[in-house]
Protein backbone atom coordinates (compact mmCIF):
# COMPACT_ATOMS: atom_id res chain seq x y z
CA UNK A 1 0.00 0.00 0.00
CA UNK A 2 1.14 3.55 -0.72
CA UNK A 3 2.20 5.48 2.39
CA UNK A 4 2.07 9.21 3.13
CA UNK A 5 3.82 10.78 6.11
CA UNK A 6 1.88 13.71 7.61
CA UNK A 7 3.98 16.02 9.79
CA UNK A 8 1.75 18.44 11.72
CA UNK A 9 1.44 19.36 15.40
CA UNK A 10 -2.35 19.63 15.18
CA UNK A 11 -3.94 16.19 15.84
CA UNK A 12 -7.14 17.27 14.11
CA UNK A 13 -5.21 17.80 10.87
CA UNK A 14 -3.47 14.42 10.95
CA UNK A 15 -6.70 12.60 11.87
CA UNK A 16 -8.66 14.30 9.08
CA UNK A 17 -6.01 13.41 6.51
CA UNK A 18 -5.79 9.83 7.79
CA UNK A 19 -9.56 9.35 7.33
CA UNK A 20 -9.54 11.04 3.90
CA UNK A 21 -6.65 8.96 2.56
CA UNK A 22 -7.93 5.68 4.05
CA UNK A 23 -10.94 5.95 1.72
CA UNK A 24 -8.52 5.87 -1.23
CA UNK A 25 -6.21 3.03 -0.11
CA UNK A 26 -3.46 5.36 1.08
CA UNK A 27 -1.86 4.64 4.45
CA UNK A 28 -0.87 7.51 6.74
CA UNK A 29 2.04 7.73 9.15
CA UNK A 30 1.81 10.60 11.67
CA UNK A 31 4.43 12.86 13.20
CA UNK A 32 3.79 15.89 15.42
CA UNK A 33 7.15 17.62 15.07
CA UNK A 34 9.96 18.01 12.52
CA UNK A 35 12.26 15.84 14.65
CA UNK A 36 9.68 13.04 14.88
CA UNK A 37 8.98 13.36 11.15
CA UNK A 38 12.64 12.83 10.27
CA UNK A 39 12.75 9.79 12.57
CA UNK A 40 9.65 8.35 10.86
CA UNK A 41 11.32 8.72 7.48
CA UNK A 42 14.23 6.62 8.73
CA UNK A 43 11.92 3.95 10.16
CA UNK A 44 9.13 3.69 7.57
CA UNK A 45 9.05 3.35 3.79
CA UNK A 46 7.37 6.56 2.65
CA UNK A 47 6.11 7.58 -0.78
CA UNK A 48 5.18 11.22 -0.06
CA UNK A 49 5.37 13.79 2.75
CA UNK A 50 2.75 16.38 3.70
CA UNK A 51 4.35 18.87 6.09
CA UNK A 52 3.02 21.86 7.97
CA UNK A 53 4.95 25.12 7.71
CA UNK A 54 4.42 26.25 11.33
CA UNK A 55 5.10 24.30 14.52
CA UNK A 56 5.44 27.10 17.09
CA UNK A 57 2.51 29.01 18.49
CA UNK A 58 4.52 32.23 18.77
CA UNK A 59 5.56 32.52 15.12
CA UNK A 60 3.91 32.42 11.71
CA UNK A 61 7.07 32.89 9.64
CA UNK A 62 7.16 29.33 8.41
CA UNK A 63 10.88 29.00 9.16
CA UNK A 64 10.31 25.67 10.92
CA UNK A 65 8.77 24.33 7.72
CA UNK A 66 11.64 25.71 5.68
CA UNK A 67 14.23 23.95 7.83
CA UNK A 68 12.21 20.71 7.77
CA UNK A 69 11.94 20.82 4.00
CA UNK A 70 15.68 21.40 3.63
CA UNK A 71 16.44 18.45 5.92
CA UNK A 72 14.11 16.15 3.95
CA UNK A 73 15.48 17.30 0.61
CA UNK A 74 19.07 16.76 1.78
CA UNK A 75 18.49 13.17 2.92
CA UNK A 76 15.72 12.19 0.48
CA UNK A 77 16.23 14.29 -2.67
CA UNK A 78 13.62 12.45 -4.75
CA UNK A 79 10.85 12.25 -2.14
CA UNK A 80 7.89 14.50 -3.07
CA UNK A 81 6.89 17.02 -0.38
CA UNK A 82 3.58 18.94 -0.18
CA UNK A 83 3.51 21.95 2.12
CA UNK A 84 0.48 22.95 4.21
CA UNK A 85 0.50 26.66 4.91
CA UNK A 86 -1.51 29.55 6.26
CA UNK A 87 -1.52 32.80 4.30
CA UNK A 88 1.15 34.25 6.57
CA UNK A 89 3.74 31.69 5.38
CA UNK A 90 2.63 31.66 1.75
CA UNK A 91 5.74 33.51 0.56
CA UNK A 92 7.99 30.88 2.16
CA UNK A 93 5.95 28.07 0.56
CA UNK A 94 6.27 29.58 -2.90
CA UNK A 95 10.01 29.92 -2.37
CA UNK A 96 10.24 26.25 -1.41
CA UNK A 97 8.24 25.16 -4.45
CA UNK A 98 10.84 26.92 -6.58
CA UNK A 99 13.48 25.02 -4.58
CA UNK A 100 11.88 21.65 -5.37
CA UNK A 101 8.77 21.17 -3.20
CA UNK A 102 6.04 19.36 -5.13
CA UNK A 103 3.20 21.76 -4.21
CA UNK A 104 1.68 23.83 -1.44
CA UNK A 105 -1.90 23.94 -0.17
CA UNK A 106 -3.45 26.61 2.00
CA UNK A 107 -5.37 25.71 5.15
CA UNK A 108 -8.20 24.86 5.14
CA UNK A 109 -7.51 22.73 2.09
CA UNK A 110 -9.84 21.50 -0.61
CA UNK A 111 -10.17 17.71 -0.31
CA UNK A 112 -10.61 17.15 -4.05
CA UNK A 113 -7.58 19.22 -4.96
CA UNK A 114 -5.48 17.59 -2.24
CA UNK A 115 -6.47 14.09 -3.37
CA UNK A 116 -5.81 14.89 -7.02
CA UNK A 117 -2.38 16.31 -6.15
CA UNK A 118 -1.45 13.36 -3.95
CA UNK A 119 -2.65 10.76 -6.51
CA UNK A 120 -0.72 12.45 -9.32
CA UNK A 121 2.47 12.67 -7.26
CA UNK A 122 2.22 9.08 -6.03
CA UNK A 123 1.64 7.78 -9.54
CA UNK A 124 4.49 9.91 -10.91
CA UNK A 125 6.78 8.57 -8.19
CA UNK A 126 5.64 5.01 -9.00
CA UNK A 127 6.39 5.55 -12.68
CA UNK A 128 9.75 7.11 -11.87
CA UNK A 129 10.69 4.14 -9.68
CA UNK A 130 9.58 1.72 -12.38
CA UNK A 131 11.59 3.58 -15.04
CA UNK A 132 14.64 3.78 -12.80
CA UNK A 133 14.36 0.07 -12.04
CA UNK A 134 14.20 -0.67 -15.78
CA UNK A 135 17.17 1.63 -16.41
CA UNK A 136 19.21 -0.12 -13.70
CA UNK A 137 18.34 -3.50 -15.17
CA UNK A 138 19.31 -2.31 -18.67
CA UNK A 139 22.60 -0.91 -17.35
CA UNK A 140 23.31 -4.19 -15.57
CA UNK A 141 22.60 -6.23 -18.73
CA UNK A 142 24.70 -3.82 -20.79
CA UNK A 143 27.61 -4.12 -18.36
CA UNK A 144 27.31 -7.93 -18.45
CA UNK A 145 27.30 -7.83 -22.26
CA UNK A 146 30.38 -5.59 -22.37
CA UNK A 147 32.25 -7.87 -19.94
CA UNK A 148 31.39 -10.98 -21.93
CA UNK A 149 31.88 -9.71 -25.48
CA UNK A 150 33.88 -7.19 -27.50
CA UNK A 151 31.32 -4.55 -28.55
CA UNK A 152 33.90 -2.43 -30.39
CA UNK A 153 33.09 0.60 -28.26
CA UNK A 154 29.41 0.64 -29.27
CA UNK A 155 27.38 3.33 -27.48
CA UNK A 156 23.79 2.42 -26.66
CA UNK A 157 21.23 2.69 -23.88
CA UNK A 158 18.18 1.03 -25.43
CA UNK A 159 16.98 -2.48 -24.80
CA UNK A 160 16.47 -2.93 -28.56
CA UNK A 161 20.14 -2.38 -29.40
CA UNK A 162 21.20 -4.49 -26.44
CA UNK A 163 19.23 -7.40 -27.92
CA UNK A 164 20.66 -6.72 -31.39
CA UNK A 165 24.28 -6.72 -30.19
CA UNK A 166 23.70 -9.77 -27.99
CA UNK A 167 22.28 -11.74 -30.93
CA UNK A 168 25.28 -10.74 -33.07
CA UNK A 169 27.68 -11.93 -30.37
CA UNK A 170 25.84 -15.21 -29.84
CA UNK A 171 25.99 -16.20 -33.53
CA UNK A 172 29.48 -14.77 -34.09
CA UNK A 173 31.33 -18.09 -33.76
CA UNK A 174 28.91 -20.05 -35.94
CA UNK A 175 30.23 -20.68 -39.45
CA UNK A 176 27.12 -19.31 -41.15
CA UNK A 177 26.20 -16.35 -43.33
CA UNK A 178 24.41 -13.45 -41.66
CA UNK A 179 22.15 -10.85 -43.27
CA UNK A 180 21.87 -7.54 -41.41
CA UNK A 181 18.83 -5.43 -42.29
CA UNK A 182 17.82 -1.91 -41.34
CA UNK A 183 17.68 1.65 -42.66
CA UNK A 184 20.68 3.61 -43.88
CA UNK A 185 22.81 5.08 -41.12
CA UNK A 186 21.33 2.89 -38.35
CA UNK A 187 24.57 1.04 -37.57
CA UNK A 188 24.57 -2.12 -39.70
CA UNK A 189 28.34 -2.00 -40.27
CA UNK A 190 28.94 -1.66 -36.52
CA UNK A 191 26.94 -4.87 -35.99
CA UNK A 192 29.06 -6.58 -38.66
CA UNK A 193 32.24 -5.41 -36.91
CA UNK A 194 30.97 -6.84 -33.61
CA UNK A 195 30.22 -10.13 -35.35
CA UNK A 196 33.80 -10.31 -36.61
CA UNK A 197 35.36 -9.19 -33.31
CA UNK A 198 33.68 -12.07 -31.49
CA UNK A 199 34.08 -14.70 -34.21
CA UNK A 200 37.53 -15.92 -33.28
CA UNK A 201 38.60 -15.61 -36.92
CA UNK A 202 42.25 -14.77 -37.49
CA UNK A 203 41.81 -12.82 -40.73
CA UNK A 204 40.75 -9.24 -41.42
CA UNK A 205 37.36 -7.55 -41.46
CA UNK A 206 36.97 -6.32 -45.04
CA UNK A 207 34.04 -4.06 -45.96
CA UNK A 208 32.73 -3.56 -49.49
CA UNK A 209 29.91 -1.18 -50.45
CA UNK A 210 28.33 -2.93 -53.42
CA UNK A 211 26.43 0.21 -54.36
CA UNK A 212 29.59 2.32 -54.65
CA UNK A 213 31.34 0.12 -57.25
CA UNK A 214 30.58 0.62 -60.97
CA UNK A 215 28.70 -2.49 -62.21
CA UNK A 216 31.44 -3.39 -64.66
CA UNK A 217 34.08 -3.51 -61.93
CA UNK A 218 32.22 -5.47 -59.25
CA UNK A 219 33.56 -8.88 -60.29
CA UNK A 220 37.17 -7.65 -60.36
CA UNK A 221 36.69 -5.92 -56.99
CA UNK A 222 35.36 -9.07 -55.30
CA UNK A 223 37.33 -11.84 -56.99
CA UNK A 224 40.47 -10.09 -58.24
CA UNK A 225 41.90 -9.66 -61.74
CA UNK A 226 44.91 -10.96 -63.67
CA UNK A 227 47.16 -8.66 -65.68
CA UNK A 228 45.80 -8.20 -69.20
CA UNK A 229 42.27 -9.38 -68.34
CA UNK A 230 41.02 -6.10 -69.81
CA UNK A 231 42.57 -2.98 -71.28
CA UNK A 232 43.39 -1.10 -68.07
CA UNK A 233 44.40 -4.21 -66.08
CA UNK A 234 48.15 -3.68 -66.36
CA UNK A 235 48.94 -5.77 -63.28
CA UNK A 236 47.43 -8.61 -61.25
CA UNK A 237 45.35 -7.54 -58.26
CA UNK A 238 43.77 -9.64 -55.53
CA UNK A 239 40.08 -9.27 -54.80
CA UNK A 240 38.30 -8.73 -51.54
CA UNK A 241 37.73 -12.45 -51.01
CA UNK A 242 41.48 -12.98 -50.99
CA UNK A 243 42.06 -9.98 -48.70
CA UNK A 244 39.48 -11.33 -46.25
CA UNK A 245 40.97 -14.85 -46.17
CA UNK A 246 40.32 -16.47 -42.76
CA UNK A 247 38.33 -13.38 -41.83
CA UNK A 248 35.01 -11.65 -42.55
CA UNK A 249 33.87 -10.12 -45.82
CA UNK A 250 31.13 -7.54 -45.22
CA UNK A 251 29.03 -6.87 -48.32
CA UNK A 252 27.06 -3.70 -47.65
CA UNK A 253 24.12 -2.72 -49.90
CA UNK A 254 23.97 -6.30 -51.19
CA UNK A 255 20.70 -5.48 -52.98
CA UNK A 256 22.68 -3.39 -55.48
CA UNK A 257 24.87 -6.29 -56.58
CA UNK A 258 24.38 -6.89 -60.37
CA UNK A 259 22.60 -10.11 -61.31
CA UNK A 260 25.64 -11.33 -63.25
CA UNK A 261 27.77 -11.05 -60.12
CA UNK A 262 25.06 -12.60 -57.93
CA UNK A 263 25.56 -15.89 -59.81
CA UNK A 264 29.30 -15.90 -59.09
CA UNK A 265 28.78 -14.92 -55.44
CA UNK A 266 26.32 -17.81 -55.05
CA UNK A 267 28.91 -20.23 -56.47
CA UNK A 268 31.52 -19.04 -53.97
CA UNK A 269 29.10 -19.49 -51.08
CA UNK A 270 28.20 -22.99 -52.24
CA UNK A 271 31.61 -24.32 -53.28
CA UNK A 272 34.08 -22.04 -51.48
CA UNK A 273 35.85 -21.68 -54.84
CA UNK A 274 36.41 -18.80 -57.26
CA UNK A 275 38.80 -17.60 -59.96
CA UNK A 276 40.24 -14.19 -60.65
CA UNK A 277 38.94 -12.36 -63.69
CA UNK A 278 41.05 -13.50 -66.66
CA UNK A 279 42.39 -16.60 -64.88
CA UNK A 280 41.54 -20.29 -65.07
CA UNK A 281 43.16 -21.08 -61.74
CA UNK A 282 40.68 -22.06 -59.03
CA UNK A 283 41.24 -20.50 -55.61
CA UNK A 284 39.67 -21.38 -52.27
CA UNK A 285 37.77 -18.84 -50.18
CA UNK A 286 37.90 -19.50 -46.44
CA UNK A 287 35.80 -16.44 -45.65
CA UNK A 288 32.78 -15.70 -43.49
CA UNK A 289 30.33 -13.60 -45.53
CA UNK A 290 28.16 -11.03 -43.73
CA UNK A 291 25.88 -8.90 -45.88
CA UNK A 292 23.63 -5.93 -45.21
CA UNK A 293 20.80 -4.11 -46.94
CA UNK A 294 18.11 -1.51 -46.45
CA UNK A 295 16.22 -2.89 -49.46
CA UNK A 296 13.22 -5.22 -49.48
CA UNK A 297 14.97 -8.27 -50.91
CA UNK A 298 11.82 -10.48 -51.08
CA UNK A 299 10.18 -7.77 -53.24
CA UNK A 300 13.30 -7.63 -55.41
CA UNK A 301 13.10 -11.41 -55.81
CA UNK A 302 9.50 -11.13 -56.99
CA UNK A 303 10.57 -8.46 -59.49
CA UNK A 304 13.43 -10.60 -60.79
CA UNK A 305 16.15 -8.24 -59.52
CA UNK A 306 17.60 -10.54 -56.86
CA UNK A 307 18.20 -14.28 -56.91
CA UNK A 308 16.08 -16.27 -54.48
CA UNK A 309 18.74 -18.97 -54.05
CA UNK A 310 21.34 -16.33 -53.18
CA UNK A 311 18.97 -14.73 -50.69
CA UNK A 312 18.59 -18.00 -48.79
CA UNK A 313 22.36 -18.53 -48.82
CA UNK A 314 22.95 -15.06 -47.36
CA UNK A 315 20.03 -15.12 -44.94
CA UNK A 316 20.86 -18.11 -42.73
CA UNK A 317 20.57 -15.74 -39.75
CA UNK A 318 18.97 -12.31 -40.03
CA UNK A 319 19.76 -9.49 -37.60
CA UNK A 320 17.58 -6.37 -37.79
CA UNK A 321 18.96 -3.01 -36.70
CA UNK A 322 16.07 -0.72 -35.70
CA UNK A 323 15.84 2.88 -36.83
CA UNK A 324 16.99 5.47 -34.30
CA UNK A 325 13.45 6.80 -33.90
CA UNK A 326 12.42 3.33 -32.66
CA UNK A 327 15.04 3.41 -29.88
CA UNK A 328 14.80 6.93 -28.38
CA UNK A 329 16.87 5.93 -25.33
CA UNK A 330 19.90 5.87 -27.63
CA UNK A 331 19.48 9.45 -28.90
CA UNK A 332 20.98 11.31 -25.96
CA UNK A 333 23.52 8.57 -25.22
CA UNK A 334 24.87 8.85 -28.77
CA UNK A 335 24.58 12.65 -28.90
CA UNK A 336 26.60 13.05 -25.68
CA UNK A 337 29.18 10.58 -26.98
CA UNK A 338 29.57 12.56 -30.22
CA UNK A 339 29.74 15.83 -28.26
CA UNK A 340 32.42 14.65 -25.86
CA UNK A 341 33.14 15.76 -22.28
CA UNK A 342 34.06 19.34 -23.18
CA UNK A 343 30.52 20.42 -24.09
CA UNK A 344 26.94 20.16 -22.94
CA UNK A 345 23.44 20.40 -24.40
CA UNK A 346 21.08 23.19 -23.37
CA UNK A 347 17.53 22.16 -22.43
CA UNK A 348 16.08 23.32 -25.75
CA UNK A 349 18.72 21.28 -27.60
CA UNK A 350 17.84 18.13 -25.65
CA UNK A 351 14.15 18.64 -26.37
CA UNK A 352 14.85 19.17 -30.07
CA UNK A 353 17.07 16.09 -30.27
CA UNK A 354 14.41 13.89 -28.69
CA UNK A 355 11.59 15.35 -30.81
CA UNK A 356 13.35 14.92 -34.18
CA UNK A 357 12.47 11.85 -36.29
CA UNK A 358 16.09 11.25 -37.47
CA UNK A 359 15.37 9.89 -40.96
CA UNK A 360 19.15 9.63 -41.47
CA UNK A 361 19.51 7.74 -38.19
CA UNK A 362 22.85 7.67 -36.31
CA UNK A 363 24.74 9.14 -39.26
CA UNK A 364 22.45 12.19 -39.32
CA UNK A 365 22.72 12.58 -35.54
CA UNK A 366 26.51 12.51 -35.67
CA UNK A 367 26.57 15.14 -38.43
CA UNK A 368 24.13 17.39 -36.54
CA UNK A 369 26.23 17.28 -33.37
CA UNK A 370 29.52 17.80 -35.24
CA UNK A 371 28.01 20.85 -36.97
CA UNK A 372 26.66 22.21 -33.69
CA UNK A 373 30.09 21.91 -32.04
CA UNK A 374 31.48 24.31 -34.64
CA UNK A 375 28.66 26.83 -34.11
CA UNK A 376 28.28 26.67 -30.34
CA UNK A 377 29.46 29.32 -27.89
CA UNK A 378 31.64 28.10 -24.98
CA UNK A 379 30.69 24.48 -25.66
CA UNK A 380 26.97 24.91 -24.91
CA UNK A 381 24.89 23.39 -27.73
CA UNK A 382 21.53 25.07 -28.35
CA UNK A 383 18.61 24.05 -30.53
CA UNK A 384 19.61 26.70 -33.06
CA UNK A 385 23.16 25.27 -33.23
CA UNK A 386 21.74 21.88 -34.14
CA UNK A 387 19.68 23.32 -36.97
CA UNK A 388 16.62 21.42 -35.72
CA UNK A 389 13.10 22.80 -35.24
CA UNK A 390 12.14 23.66 -31.68
CA UNK A 391 10.27 20.89 -29.88
CA UNK A 392 6.57 21.56 -29.52
CA UNK A 393 5.29 21.67 -25.99
CA UNK A 394 2.46 19.20 -25.59
CA UNK A 395 -0.30 20.26 -23.16
CA UNK A 396 -0.53 17.84 -20.29
CA UNK A 397 -3.80 15.93 -20.28
CA UNK A 398 -4.89 15.61 -16.70
CA UNK A 399 -8.18 13.87 -17.49
CA UNK A 400 -8.67 10.24 -16.53
CA UNK A 401 -8.43 7.89 -19.52
CA UNK A 402 -11.90 6.62 -20.37
CA UNK A 403 -13.03 3.00 -20.58
CA UNK A 404 -12.63 2.99 -24.37
CA UNK A 405 -9.07 4.29 -24.09
CA UNK A 406 -8.20 1.64 -21.52
CA UNK A 407 -9.72 -1.15 -23.61
CA UNK A 408 -7.92 0.07 -26.72
CA UNK A 409 -4.57 0.14 -24.90
CA UNK A 410 -5.11 -3.39 -23.60
CA UNK A 411 -6.05 -4.66 -27.06
CA UNK A 412 -2.99 -3.03 -28.61
CA UNK A 413 -0.81 -4.63 -25.92
CA UNK A 414 -2.58 -8.01 -26.39
CA UNK A 415 -3.70 -8.00 -22.77
CA UNK A 416 -0.24 -7.31 -21.33
CA UNK A 417 -0.77 -4.74 -18.56
CA UNK A 418 2.87 -3.64 -18.45
CA UNK A 419 2.93 -2.80 -22.17
CA UNK A 420 -0.51 -1.15 -21.97
CA UNK A 421 0.73 1.03 -19.08
CA UNK A 422 3.74 2.12 -21.15
CA UNK A 423 1.41 3.10 -24.01
CA UNK A 424 -0.66 5.24 -21.64
CA UNK A 425 2.40 6.78 -19.95
CA UNK A 426 1.64 5.48 -16.46
CA UNK A 427 2.89 2.83 -14.08
CA UNK A 428 1.51 -0.71 -14.00
CA UNK A 429 -0.04 -0.14 -10.57
CA UNK A 430 -1.70 3.09 -11.72
CA UNK A 431 -3.24 1.27 -14.69
CA UNK A 432 -4.54 -1.48 -12.44
CA UNK A 433 -6.33 1.13 -10.31
CA UNK A 434 -7.92 2.73 -13.36
CA UNK A 435 -8.98 -0.66 -14.72
CA UNK A 436 -10.60 -1.44 -11.38
CA UNK A 437 -12.46 1.89 -11.36
CA UNK A 438 -13.62 1.24 -14.93
CA UNK A 439 -14.78 -2.30 -14.07
CA UNK A 440 -12.28 -3.94 -16.41
CA UNK A 441 -10.37 -7.13 -15.67
CA UNK A 442 -7.19 -7.75 -17.67
CA UNK A 443 -6.45 -11.31 -18.68
CA UNK A 444 -2.79 -12.07 -17.92
Structure characterization notes:
The chain has 444 residues and is α/β, with parallel strands linked by helices. The chain has four domains: 2-127, Response regulator (Rossmann fold, 3-Layer(aba) Sandwich), CATH 3.40.50; 149-320, Rossmann fold; 324-386, Helicase, Ruva Protein, domain 3; 403-437. The protein contains 19 helices and 14 strands. The strands form four sheets. It has a five-stranded parallel sheet with strand order 2-1-3-4-5, with helices on both faces. It has a five-stranded parallel sheet with strand order 7-8-11-6-12. Helix 6 (159-171) packs across helix 7. The chain is elongated and about 100 Å long. Residues 393-399 have low confidence and may be disordered.
Summarize the structure.
This protein is an alpha/beta fold and 444 residues long.
Please render the helix and strand layout as text.
Elements: E1 2-7, H1 11-22, E2 26-31, H2 34-43, E3 48-52, H3 63-75, E4 81-85, H4 90-98, E5 103-106, H5 111-148, H6 159-171, E6 178-181, H7 188-197, E7 205-209, H8 218-223, H9 240-243, E8 248-252, H10 259-271, E9 273-274, E10 283-284, E11 288-293, H11 297-302, H12 308-314, E12 317-320, H13 329-339, E13 344-345, H14 347-355, H15 361-375, E14 380-381, H16 383-386, H17 403-412, H18 417-424, H19 428-437
Parallel strand pairs: 1-2, 1-3, 3-4, 4-5, 6-11, 6-12, 7-8, 8-11, 13-14
Antiparallel strand pairs: 9-10
Structural class assignment = alpha/beta
Q: Biggest sheet, open or closed, and with what strands and sense?
A: 5 strands, parallel
First-to-last CA distance: 22 Å
CATH architecture designation of the largest domain: 3-Layer(aba) Sandwich
Question: At the fourth CATH level, what is the homologous superfamily of the largest domain?
Answer: P-loop containing nucleotide triphosphate hydrolases
Low-confidence stretches: 393-399
Q: In the residues, how many domains can be counted? A: 4
Briefly note the CATH topology name of the largest domain.
Rossmann fold
Average pLDDT score: 87
Radius of gyration over C-alpha positions, nearest whole angstrom? 31 Å
Helix count, per DSSP?
Answer: 19
Count of extended strands:
14
Query: How much strand?
Result: 5-15%
CATH class of the largest domain: Alpha Beta
Strand order of the largest sheet: 2-1-3-4-5
Shape label: elongated
Percent range of helical residues:
40-55%
